[in-house]
Write a structure and sequence with these properties.
The mean pLDDT is 81. The protein has 2 domains: 16-157 and 289-375, no CATH class; 165-253, no CATH class. The chain is elongated and about 90 Å long. Strand 1 (165-173) and strand 2 form a beta hairpin. A 6-stranded antiparallel beta sheet has the order 1-2-3-4-5-6. Helix 7 crosses helix 8 (286-314), helix 8 runs antiparallel to helix 9 (321-349) and helix 8 (286-314) runs parallel beside helix 10 (354-375). It starts with a helix and ends with a helix. 62% of the residues lie in helices and 17% in strands. The chain has 10 helices and 6 strands. The protein is an alpha+beta fold.
Length: 378
């Protein structure tokens, strides 16, 4: 008997989640308003960006074909996903407020549909947008970012000034450590270079020292000059000296002089593999890449939170009309973006765990969304 009741309950739940005419109406409104806002705001952003950079384009004789296809067609996906949660919020506030003003929300609730059930088409639309953002961020934008950054280096940004890197400590393999006193990205040369190998008990097994190490781009190897190699056995120490010796290391010149935007050019799998490599090397850059990894999950999830906040705020008539709802909503969404930036900086500059830094804003705004949901008309 209980099993039959459970089956009936499951059937009723499934039946209630089947999309109805009103659901399709909300989905069309949601997605239609979102993409309209996206196109409108992106058009404005492109116009302002072009007005700011046209002098640089003309000064450096940038071909118009490259401006359109190499820069702006690759700039649009990046900018769209960066502010997509904000666009979602504006879209939800705008069309839901209009529905509330036109008493459509009251009619829906009076028809017997609960507020919770009314949220179903909203969350389905949010799921479509979140998956869209996740796909673009992890698989499309890394490819477009390479072309966009290459264009900026040629025709917009002043030549990036390469400066020497000091005191480099890296673990390149298990129990193998590299040190350079300084490295010049201009000459691809390191000064006072050492490689130390330890056994599992932490005792030094061998040490290669060289006053200078040079990157050979043909063989893709580091060449140590005037080296001294000490090999320590249990009974004796063997010292070997020579003019040149090749070393096979997992670090490359780009690891010391990388553009800050490099993290955005990695696909999902490349990012994970590179994080594993940085962990092995003990690199100081690890936090930046961990923040990017967790941001790619937390950012799409924000779509659901801001959707719930938007519906809860705009589903009833308030004094001030749509403008008041949009004003409150924009204040919340911009505070979310600001909080996200502060959290990431606390992680990079401080000791805050990257995963916690990226998810704290979502957790805080889930609480805010829950409070607003309880206050929303039922």
């Amino acid at each position: 008997m209980e099993r039959d009741n459970d089956k009936k309950t499951i059937r009723s739940v499934i039946s209630s989640l089947k999309l109805k005419i009103i659901d399709w109406y909300i989905i069309r409104k949601f997605l239609g308003t979102f993409f309209f806002c996206l196109i409108l705001i992106m058009t404005i952003a492109v116009v302002f960006d072009f007005a700011e950079k046209i002098d640089n384009f003309m000064e450096k004789s940038a071909p118009w074909r490259a401006v359109i296809f190499d820069y702006y067609l690759n700039f649009i996906p990046y900018f769209a996903t960066l502010f997509a949660p904000l666009f979602v919020f504006i879209a939800v506030i705008f069309f839901t407020s209009r529905m509330a003003v036109n008493t459509e929300i009251i009619a829906i609730l009076n028809s017997g549909m609960s507020f919770r059930r009314m949220m179903w088409p909203y969350f389905l639309s949010s799921l479509v947008i979140a998956l869209f953002i996740f796909y673009l961020t992890n698989f499309v934008i890394p490819q477009t970012a390479l072309k966009r950054m290459d264009f900026e280096d040629k025709y917009y940004r002043p030549q990036w000034r390469k400066v020497n890197v000091e005191n480099i400590h890296r673990q390149v393999y298990k129990n193998i450590y590299v040190y350079m006193e300084s490295y010049s990205p201009v000459y691809l040369r390191g000064r006072n270079f050492t490689i130390e190998q330890f056994n599992d008990q932490g005792k030094l097994v061998s040490k290669l020292s060289s006053p200078s190490v040079l990157w050979d781009s043909i063989s893709s190897k580091w060449i140590a000059s005037n080296y001294t190699l000490r090999q320590i056995n249990s009974n004796e120490e063997i010292v070997t000296r020579g003019v040149k010796i090749d070393t096979t290391l997992t670090i490359r010149p780009g690891d010391f002089s990388r553009d800050p935007g490099f993290v955005g050019t990695m696909t999902y799998r490349e990012l994970y593999d590179y994080i594993d490599l940085l962990k092995l090397q003990g690199s100081d850059e690890l936090k930046v890449f961990l923040i990017e990894k967790h941001r790619r999950y937390a950012h799409p999830f924000a779509v659901f939170i801001l959707t719930l906040i938007g519906v809860s705020l705009s589903s009833k008539k308030i004094r001030g009309g749509i403008g008041m709802s949009i004003g409150i909503g924009l204040a919340l969404s911009f505070s979310y973006i600001l909080f996200l930036q502060f959290a990431s900086q606390f992680s990079v500059k401080g000791n805050l765990n990257p995963m916690i830094a990226m998810w704290i804003p979502n957790l805080l705004y889930i609480v805010i969304a829950g409070v607003l949901y309880k206050l929303a008309p039922k």
